[in-house]
């Protein structure tokens, strides 16, 4: 799959924003409600998944027009990363794990 580095940076920013929003929602939960622990657990679980996605993106190997393979994590500290943003890279994503079938809690 061909993806530009700019798209990956945009996705990283989106993941960071989502984590911040979930943190704010977690902090605003009323503790005296019976649904609060379930929501808090769900928010924390989603934040963990988003952080895992971020780590996965940062661990991807990138290929610059048929040359050597680099890690995206190394490019984030490189001051020349703006040169790479316009070029296409090949990215292979590992298969997404299946979501376990859990019963839905009904009240």
From TrEMBL:
Residues 5-32 form a coiled coil. Keywords: Coiled coil. Residues 86-107 are annotated as: Disordered. It comes from the Bacteria. Residues 96-107 have a biased composition (Basic and acidic residues). This is IS66 family transposase.
